[in-house]
Design a protein that fits this description.
Structural class: mainly alpha
Shape: globular
Number of helices: 24
Order of helices and strands: HHHHHHHHHHHHHEHEEEEHHHHHHHHHH
Distance between the termini: 21 Å
Helix content: 55-70%
Strand order of the largest sheet: 2-4-3
Length: 550
């Protein structure tokens, strides 16, 4: 066990303070307290967090690092806190609304991770349901600043969130169903508590209805008609999601080249699936194979769980050290239907395991295993679950901020794409259909590097006919993905509303593969490399390079 340094102590205290300031964060990391509360998204609360964060960094800077872990923590804090200050100065919170990852979704999504095992847990949830309206009102106040400054979110995103609000506020919307199905692990809830839950669910639903009225009557008329965020803000978002600065123009050209490479590899794989076949013909052949079909959400969940359990059991004997605490990964069907697939990490004490969530769109009842197998490895092992779980487990070396809070998209998502390719190298995707599924995902990730940069930095269309608009972007992604139409629609809306995030996957993978190649060239064992980098936690990519250089 590494002795706790002064920098560690300050980092640990900051996590405790963040858990107080953000009940949602406390729930996500499994810290006690705030189970009956929700986040304050007001401008005043954001300023409070900013003030305390800057004060903490000033305190940390007064302490000389005592070892490499301290050096890495300090490097990572300077990176993350510096970027958070730049984002604050750029006033991005006043237009923080999109179809996937804004408070509009987060206020509802926290209920997926809330504890529901005991009667007390459900009493807490009465408070949390009653807090929905206040949390949305605080968020509304931040969005009102965007209206005043003529810097509101794009109309497209407002319209999408209005549709999401309409689903939440239906008579069988999320909160009503959540309360209706309330049940602890043992026994039944008292009738009085059931009644309180029903009333609180009504209050939460009304809170979203009121928020929807604001979106429709105030935000929508003032929404931006322009989807593009502009180059200056885009470069800031890119650095934030990567924890590193890249040359946007060089990356754009690389994305075009990588997309062509993925297409060529798919064409070769298509002929392995069916001699002489095109990509489309090979995929039609795969889609018509009943052995590659799953019917219904229950069958999907069981298949995901079986494949995940197999990866954990086998890789734990060969290529990774997987501690007993992270050998459990629960595969879940999400109660929402946004179309997203995502991972939530274990609680700090591992009483809640890591979970892979599949938010199945409305009307989708069939699933193709050839397409989805690589996703299990991306979200599970050796992807996000191994990465996040190992950091959470590594108490011996990492402070709580490094273990539980520090997450950088380019590091995390880049690792997950690296993990997909690794599973192909290890023989788990030897079936040409499964390999095609991995390539389809990798091609999509390359395509969105091109699309995202082009849209937000006003690049010309690839055919030279003008600037990118939604229809051209949709057509481009449709041509470079064999996913369902609902998925393509969801993804293009995501890129238009969440600038810089989607490219971080493929750019992060590029950096991970460069570092792995350098490790191999030095003669380092692959398993040793993986152990070393996973034990560092989810640090910014510039910090990862720094740590490996030291």
């Amino acid at each position: 066990m590494r002795p706790e340094s002064n920098i560690d102590k300050l980092a640990n205290k900051w996590v405790e303070r963040l858990a107080e300031l953000s009940p949602t964060l406390a729930t996500d990391i499994g810290y006690p307290g705030g189970e009956d509360k929700l986040n304050d998204y007001s401008p005043e609360h954001a300023e409070l967090i900013r003030s305390e964060r800057n004060a903490l960094l000033a305190q940390v800077e007064k302490n000389a690092p005592v070892d490499l872990q301290d050096e890495v923590t300090l490097h990572a804090m300077r990176n993350r806190f510096g970027l958070e200050e730049e984002l604050h100065q750029a006033n991005v919170a006043r237009r923080d609304l999109n179809n996937l990852a804004s408070p509009a979704q987060g206020i509802r999504d926290v209920f997926d991770n809330s504890k529901i095992e005991t009667e007390q847990d459900w009493k807490n949830l009465v408070g949390r349901l009653n807090a929905v309206t206040g949390s949305l009102e605080s968020y509304q106040r931040s969005l009102e600043l965007g209206i005043s400054a003529k810097d509101a979110p794009a109309r497209r995103q407002v319209e999408i969130v209005l549709e999401q609000v309409a689903r939440i506020t239906k008579s069988d919307g999320f909160f009503f169903e959540f309360a209706k199905n309330a049940k602890p692990e043992s026994g039944e809830l008292p009738e009085t508590l059931k009644a309180e839950l029903a009333q609180a669910a009504k209050a939460a639903t009304n809170g979203y209805a009121k928020f929807g009225e604001f979106l429709k009557s105030e935000l929508l008329p003032n929404a931006s008609e322009v989807d593009a965020i502009g180059r200056e803000r885009y470069e800031l978002f890119s650095r934030d999601f990567l924890g590193a600065k890249v040359d946007i123009d060089e990356t754009y050209e690389w994305g075009i080249e990588e997309l062509a490479r993925m297409k060529a590899e798919q064409e070769a794989t298509a002929k392995r699936i069916k001699p002489g076949a095109t990509i489309a013909e090979a995929i039609e052949h795969l889609n018509s194979d009943p052995k590659r079909k799953l019917h219904g959400k229950e069958e999907l969940q069981k298949w995901m769980q079986a494949k995940s359990d197999q990866a954990v059991a086998e890789l734990g004997k060969s290529h990774f050290d997987i501690a007993p605490e992270i050998q459990t990964l629960e595969c879940m069907i999400a109660p929402s239907n946004s179309g997203g697939i995502y991972y939530t990490g274990p609680s700090d004490d591992f009483s809640r395991p890591g979970r892979m969530w599949w938010s199945v769109p409305e009307g989708v009842t069939e699933f193709d295993t050839w397409r989805e197998l690589t996703t299990v490895y991306h979200e599970g092992v050796p992807g996000h679950h191994l990465q996040v779980g190992q950091a959470t487990y590594n108490r011996a070396e990492l402070n709580a901020w490094r273990r539980l809070i520090l997450w950088t998209s380019g590091h995390g998502e880049g690792w997950a794409l690296y993990a997909e390719r690794l599973m192909a190298q290890l023989g788990y995707l030897d079936d040409p259909g499964d390999y095609m599924g991995m390539l389809d995902g990798q091609r999509l990730r390359a395509a969105r590097v091109v699309l995202d940069i082009a849209v937000h930095c006003n690049k010309p269309r690839l055919d030279g006919t003008g600037k990118w608009d939604f229809d051209y972007a949709h057509k481009f992604l449709r041509e470079n993905s064999m996913e369902h139409d609902s998925f393509v629609e969801f993804e293009v809306n995501r890129y238009f509303g969440w600038p810089g995030q989607a490219p971080s996957y493929k750019i992060g993978q590029r950096i991970w593969e460069q570092l792995a190649a350098e490790s191999k060239a030095s003669g380092e064992d692959q398993k040793a490399f993986h152990k070393k980098v996973l034990n560092l936690g989810g640090i910014p990519l510039d910090t990862l390079k720094f740590a490996l250089s030291r």
